[in-house]
Structure formats: C-alpha cells, structure tokens
Specification:
Elements: H1 2-5, H2 15-22, H3 24-29, E1 33-36, H4 39-52, H5 65-69, H6 82-99, E2 142-145, H7 149-159, H8 168-172, H9 194-203, H10 205-211
Length: 218
C-alpha cells in the first residue's frame, strides 16, 4: 500500500523505492538481488511484448494512453514477419529518441514507464538506474545476468529459502515449454542497423559499463 501511495507497485519499483518503503534496517538485513539482461535484446523484447501482450492492440478503436506515450505502432500480422518487424522496430527506436532524448527528464520512457520511480532524479532508461542510489552506489547484494541465471540458480537457492525445492527448469518453464512470455523472433542483432545501435548505446551506457554487455552479432 505504501508503494501505491508513491504511484508504484513492488514488482515495478526500483531498489531505491523498495528500500524507502521497507526501511533501511529491513533492506540491509534482507538478501536482495536483481536480474539484468543485454540491453539491446531487452529493447527488442520490450517492443514485441508491449505489442503482443500488454494491451497495445486496438480492441474497440481506442488504445491505452501509455501506448501513445511510448510511440508504439499498431500491432498486426507484421509482427510475424522478421523483415517488417525490423523496419518497424528501427522506426520505433528513432521515434522514442526524438520524443525523449538522452539526458532529459523524460528519457526513462525510452526504456520503461515511470512506475513512480521518477521520484528519484537519477532514474533513467538504463537498468542500472533501477538498482542504485543517488551516488551511484549499488543497493542490491547481487546482480545476475539473465543469460547466466541457470549457473547462478544454486546460489539463489542457498540464499532464498522459498527456492530450495524449485529447480531452474521449474522456475523458467524450460522443461514444460510453458515460459510466460516466450520470444519467437531472431537474435536481436538482426533487427538493428548502425544508427539504432548507437541510439540505444546513448541511453544504456551505464549498463554496458556496469555489467559488461556488448552488442553481439550472430
């Protein structure tokens, strides 16, 4: 309820907001961790997710305001065409960068909706900004790359009692094929050109520096 008062929910709140609600002592004693992902892959995945799953279709001739705010195109059969998907994805990246340039107050909209996190002046479009305080100090005990989650699962099980009896396959849906939001597109590098790669780099430089991510070509 406290987070709702700040315009957020726990799932969407930054580490800073969660700490503010729980209190310094509780936060310090708890085991805290975060998952991050290659920011280039994340941007593409966010685009397809928002169009396919998050209410940005037009059921009754009217789309939610956040779809307009995020400059999302109208979803359609083109989502299954990799060539058209690439064209529209690159157009979307350019539209976002024009609407919410780097270093502006609203630049977080390039990477995520506000979720109340804009209360912190350092909140921006990088994943890193979700995990730090105003001085850039990391607020969580451990950061795990999504690409390395399988190898880190044993450590998480040892640190979180609720995970002790849950295998990685059960948690990820890998053995049953029931992943919640499976991706059906090609490797992210197929959808970028040099201009859009550089645009994303301008927003997520903190992620590249802090987590060692690079643009991989496949």
């Amino acid at each position: 309820m406290k987070l709702r008062g700040l315009g957020s929910r726990f799932f969407h709140a930054s580490a800073s907001l969660q700490r503010r609600v729980l209190g310094e002592d509780t936060w310090r004693l708890a085991f805290t961790f975060a998952l991050v992902r290659n920011p280039f892959a994340r941007q593409l995945s966010m685009f397809t997710f928002l169009l396919q799953e998050a209410g940005c279709r037009m059921p009754l001739g009217r789309r939610p305001q956040h779809c307009e705010e995020r400059r999302l195109p109208e979803a359609g059969p083109w989502l299954k065409n990799n060539t058209e998907l690439g064209t529209r994805f690159r157009t979307w990246i350019k539209a976002l960068s024009t609407a919410y340039p780097p270093a502006t107050k609203s630049q977080h909209l390039f990477g995520a909706r506000s979720h109340g996190n804009e209360l912190d002046t350092w909140f921006n479009s990088s994943q890193h900004s979700w995990l730090v305080d105003g001085s850039g100090q990391l607020l969580v005990h451990k950061v795990i790359k999504l690409e390395e989650l399988r190898t880190s699962w044993g450590e998480l099980q040892a640190s979180i009692c609720g995970l002790k009896a849950i295998s990685y396959e059960q948690a990820s849906g890998g053995s049953s094929g029931s992943r919640r939001n499976p991706s059906h597109h090609l490797h992210y590098s197929h959808y970028y050109d040099e201009q859009t790669r550089r645009i994303v780099e301008a927003y997520v430089g903190a992620d590249l520096a802090a987590f060692g991510y690079t643009f991989e070509r496949v």
